[in-house]
Protein backbone atom coordinates (compact mmCIF):
# COMPACT_ATOMS: atom_id res chain seq x y z
CA UNK A 1 0.00 0.00 0.00
CA UNK A 2 1.43 3.38 -0.88
CA UNK A 3 0.19 6.78 -1.84
CA UNK A 4 0.84 8.00 -5.37
CA UNK A 5 0.79 11.72 -4.78
CA UNK A 6 4.10 13.58 -5.27
CA UNK A 7 4.89 15.17 -1.96
CA UNK A 8 8.49 16.25 -2.65
CA UNK A 9 10.69 14.25 -0.34
CA UNK A 10 8.08 13.77 2.36
CA UNK A 11 7.90 9.99 2.19
CA UNK A 12 7.35 8.02 5.37
CA UNK A 13 8.32 4.36 5.53
CA UNK A 14 5.85 2.68 7.87
CA UNK A 15 6.50 -0.92 8.92
CA UNK A 16 3.89 -2.75 10.99
CA UNK A 17 2.58 -6.30 10.72
CA UNK A 18 -0.89 -5.27 11.92
CA UNK A 19 -2.79 -4.37 8.74
CA UNK A 20 -5.30 -2.17 10.59
CA UNK A 21 -2.57 -0.14 12.31
CA UNK A 22 -0.75 0.18 8.99
CA UNK A 23 -3.89 1.43 7.22
CA UNK A 24 -4.69 3.90 10.00
CA UNK A 25 -1.15 5.32 10.09
CA UNK A 26 -1.04 5.57 6.29
CA UNK A 27 -4.39 7.38 6.22
CA UNK A 28 -3.38 9.92 8.87
CA UNK A 29 0.02 10.45 7.22
CA UNK A 30 -1.61 11.03 3.84
CA UNK A 31 -4.04 13.57 5.31
CA UNK A 32 -1.01 15.40 6.76
CA UNK A 33 0.64 15.70 3.36
CA UNK A 34 3.05 12.77 3.42
CA UNK A 35 3.65 10.17 0.77
CA UNK A 36 3.54 6.76 2.40
CA UNK A 37 5.42 3.53 1.72
CA UNK A 38 3.95 0.70 3.81
CA UNK A 39 5.44 -2.70 4.60
CA UNK A 40 4.11 -5.54 6.74
CA UNK A 41 7.42 -7.35 7.23
CA UNK A 42 11.09 -6.56 7.75
CA UNK A 43 11.84 -8.34 4.47
CA UNK A 44 9.42 -6.11 2.55
CA UNK A 45 11.00 -3.02 4.11
CA UNK A 46 14.53 -4.11 3.19
CA UNK A 47 13.43 -4.90 -0.39
CA UNK A 48 11.63 -1.55 -0.77
CA UNK A 49 14.38 0.57 0.74
CA UNK A 50 17.21 0.39 -1.77
CA UNK A 51 20.71 1.64 -0.97
CA UNK A 52 20.92 5.37 -0.40
CA UNK A 53 17.14 5.79 -0.38
CA UNK A 54 16.05 8.66 1.82
CA UNK A 55 12.84 8.83 3.80
CA UNK A 56 11.44 11.78 5.72
CA UNK A 57 11.01 9.37 8.63
CA UNK A 58 11.04 5.62 9.33
CA UNK A 59 8.19 4.46 11.57
CA UNK A 60 8.84 0.90 12.67
CA UNK A 61 6.85 -1.35 14.97
CA UNK A 62 9.13 -3.12 17.44
CA UNK A 63 7.19 -6.40 17.53
CA UNK A 64 7.08 -7.51 13.91
CA UNK A 65 6.24 -11.14 13.13
CA UNK A 66 9.55 -12.95 13.33
CA UNK A 67 11.63 -9.78 13.64
CA UNK A 68 12.30 -6.88 15.97
CA UNK A 69 11.98 -3.30 14.80
CA UNK A 70 15.26 -2.23 16.40
CA UNK A 71 17.06 -4.96 14.41
CA UNK A 72 15.32 -3.87 11.21
CA UNK A 73 16.45 -0.31 11.87
CA UNK A 74 20.06 -1.52 12.23
CA UNK A 75 19.77 -3.47 8.97
CA UNK A 76 18.38 -0.45 7.12
CA UNK A 77 21.14 1.79 8.48
CA UNK A 78 23.79 -0.77 7.46
CA UNK A 79 22.33 -0.70 3.94
CA UNK A 80 22.65 3.10 3.75
CA UNK A 81 19.02 4.00 4.40
CA UNK A 82 18.91 7.50 5.81
CA UNK A 83 16.36 9.57 7.67
CA UNK A 84 15.13 9.89 11.23
CA UNK A 85 13.36 6.92 12.80
CA UNK A 86 10.72 6.22 15.43
CA UNK A 87 9.99 2.88 17.07
CA UNK A 88 6.42 2.16 18.11
CA UNK A 89 5.75 -0.44 20.79
CA UNK A 90 3.87 -1.33 23.92
CA UNK A 91 5.72 -1.30 27.24
CA UNK A 92 9.32 -0.94 26.01
CA UNK A 93 11.98 -2.62 28.15
CA UNK A 94 14.95 -0.71 29.55
CA UNK A 95 17.18 -2.57 27.09
CA UNK A 96 15.04 -1.47 24.16
CA UNK A 97 15.02 2.10 25.42
CA UNK A 98 18.85 2.06 25.57
CA UNK A 99 19.21 0.51 22.11
CA UNK A 100 16.70 2.94 20.60
CA UNK A 101 18.46 5.91 22.23
CA UNK A 102 21.82 4.68 20.90
CA UNK A 103 20.24 4.45 17.43
CA UNK A 104 18.78 7.95 17.78
CA UNK A 105 15.24 6.60 17.52
CA UNK A 106 12.67 7.84 20.00
CA UNK A 107 9.98 5.42 21.12
CA UNK A 108 6.29 6.23 20.84
CA UNK A 109 4.23 3.89 22.96
CA UNK A 110 1.01 2.21 21.91
CA UNK A 111 -1.82 2.81 21.97
CA UNK A 112 -0.82 5.39 19.42
CA UNK A 113 -2.19 8.87 19.49
CA UNK A 114 -1.68 10.33 16.04
CA UNK A 115 -0.97 13.79 17.41
CA UNK A 116 1.86 12.48 19.60
CA UNK A 117 3.35 10.45 16.73
CA UNK A 118 3.21 13.26 14.18
CA UNK A 119 4.57 15.82 16.65
CA UNK A 120 7.57 13.52 17.03
CA UNK A 121 7.89 13.12 13.23
CA UNK A 122 7.82 16.90 12.74
CA UNK A 123 10.44 17.37 15.47
CA UNK A 124 12.77 14.80 13.92
CA UNK A 125 12.39 16.21 10.43
CA UNK A 126 13.27 19.69 11.67
CA UNK A 127 16.38 18.36 13.44
CA UNK A 128 17.52 16.34 10.43
Model description:
This protein is α/β, with parallel strands linked by helices and about 130 residues long. It has a single domain, classed as Rossmann fold (3-Layer(aba) Sandwich). About 40% of the residues lie in helices and about 20% in strands. It is built from 5 helices and 7 strands, in the order βαβαβββαβαβα. The chain has a 5-stranded parallel beta sheet with strand order 2-1-3-6-7, sandwiched between helices. A two-stranded antiparallel ribbon has the order 4-5. Strand 4 (about 65) and strand 5 form a beta hairpin. The longest helix is centred in the last third of the chain and has 14 residues, at about 115-125. The radius of gyration is 13 Å and the shape is globular. The relative contact order is 0.17. Mean pLDDT is about 90; it is low at about 1-10.
Q: Topology, pairings included?
A:
Layout: E1 11-15, H1 19-31, E2 35-39, H2 42-48, E3 57-61, E4 63-64, E5 67-68, H3 69-78, E6 85-89, H4 94-102, E7 107-109, H5 114-127
Parallel strand pairs: 1-2, 1-3, 3-6, 6-7
Antiparallel strand pairs: 4-5
| CATH class membership | Alpha Beta
Can you identify the CATH superfamily? Response regulator
CATH architectural category: 3-Layer(aba) Sandwich
Total count of domains: 1
Give, in order, the helices and strands: EHEHEEEHEHEH
* Order of strands across the main sheet: 2-1-3-6-7
Specify the overall morphology. Answer: globular
User: Total number of helical segments?
Assistant: 5
Mean pLDDT: 89
**Strand-residue fraction?**
15-25%
Gyration radius (Cα, Å) is 13 Å
Quick one: how many beta strands?
7
Stated plainly, the CATH topology is called: Rossmann fold
The largest β sheet comes out as:
5 strands, parallel
Quaternary structure type: single chain
Low-confidence stretches: 1-8
